[in-house]
Structures are given as structure tokens and as C-alpha cells.
Amino acid sequence: MSGFLPDEPSAEVRVSPNFGPRRETADMIVLHYTGMETGAGAEAWLCDPASEVSSHYLVHEDGRIVQMVRESDRAWHAGKSSWFGRSDINSCSVGIEVVNPGHSLGYRNFPKRQIDALIGLCKGIVQRHSIPAQRVLAHSDVAPGRKIDPGERFPWKALFEAGVGHLVEAAPVRRGAVLKAGDASAEVEALQSMLALYGYGVEISGAFDRQTEIVVEAFQRHFRQRKVDGVADGSTIRTLERLLGSVRAVPSK
After folding, report:
1. Both ends of the chain: CA-CA distance in Å?
2. Ramachandran bin of 178, using left for φ above 0, alpha for ψ from -120 to 50, beta for the remaining angles
3. What are phi and psi of 137, to 5 degrees?
4. pTM attached to this predicted model
5. Is the separation of the CB atoms in 65 and 10 below 8 Å?
6. Is 97 among the residues known to form the active site?
7. Is 6 helix (H, G, I), strand (E, B) or coil?
8. One of 97, 152, 213, 217 is an active-site residue; which one?
9. pLDDT tens digits for 226-249?
10. Is the peptide bond before 150 cis (omega within 30 degrees of 0)?
11. 25: left (phi > 0), else alpha (psi -120 to 50), else beta?
């Protein structure tokens, strides 16, 4: 493909060869950080056939938007992942890379102009594909443990206040009873059930195993950013309950 007209009018086009046909229609957005030293390096990598990775969009720190794959095509951004039991997240999502060096290279706050541009981009995608608020997700949501981006510094609140994504006010962190690795109880089973009901890939066993700990940490990284430790304290559980209480029913495919 030599080029295409951008789906997002404000986007520049730089074609990546790393894409294929969708097997499903897009009904979610997955947000990433680039995790590389520079935005230019990340853009080049996503367009390099040797990388075998891509995303639909990249948002630079100065607010420039680059589209690399048409929204109608399947970009290779999510890797091994799942949500509501669906494992081909690449086929049902639009992937957006947000330039940030990430945890291993000097993780920093995301500039306001970058987030403003991202919000506008997401609004356009949501409108074009009728994407529900609760399906604007982090890479760490769909690939917990394997990925931690866009991380606990990502300003989900700014997106939500602008009408993008799903969020509730996180319950205060206080001392009290917790559920943690090694526990086994009906309370753990209830926690796992709530996480699975929201969409996370977790087995409902009643045992607080390593996978449960990883999923709790992913939940906190998105919805209770003040403390990310994989321990289900009262704040984590109450925030999850609030989130489920405010979700609009969306049939899984």
C-alpha cells in the first residue's frame, strides 16, 4: 500500500506494512505507551517490516498524530491478550501508541498538548465505531502481567472528564482488612467474579493466586492509581464495586 486517506482528519499518514484483515469489527480502543527513547524511533519501529508490530495511530508529545494503519485493517499492537474471553484483541480494537519512554527509560508525565490531541482522536474513533465508554482500555488491562502500559501516570481522569472512557472516583485508601496472595475464601471468589464481570481475564477459583494478584495490579494501575501493589484492600474492592455499578450493559461477542 503506497498510502491512504487518514480516518482522522488531523492525522499525518505514514504507512506501516505490518497489518492484515480484521476478523471482527472494532469495538474497543487500546492505549499504549511507546516505551522507547524517542517518538521518532518509535514511529520508525512501528513502520519497519522487521519489527512485526504496528498500531493504527501514534500520538507524539507535541500533539502530532500519525496514522500508520487504516482503522478498517488489523494492526499488530496488542499481542497475546484477552477481554471478556476474546483473545484476538487486534481484530476488535483500534490501537493507539502514546509517546512516552515508559518505566524502564524514565517514565514521565504525559504533556497536556499530547493528551488533548489524544482526546480528540479518541472521540473521533468512538464516534466512527460506536465504542462504549468501558471499552477504552489500557494495554495492561488486556495483557495483565505481560504489559504495564500506559501506566499509573496516564491521566485517565482527564480523558473521562472530556467524555472519553469509563471511570469512577477511587475510594480512599485506608487501613483495614485486605485480600492478598495466598488467601482462599468466598471473598476472594467474589473479587475474582467482579473482575471477570468487568472483562479481566481471571479464573474464578476462590484462591488468591499469582494471576489474581497480577489482575488486581492491572485494575489498580487504571482505576486506583494512588497505590498499585496487587493487594485487594477496601479501596480497591469499593472502587471495583462502584465501577461495576456505573457500567452500561454491553453484550460480549
Report:
1. 31
2. beta
3. -125, 165
4. 0.96
5. yes
6. yes
7. coil
8. 97
9. 999 999 999 999 999 999 999 865
10. yes
11. beta
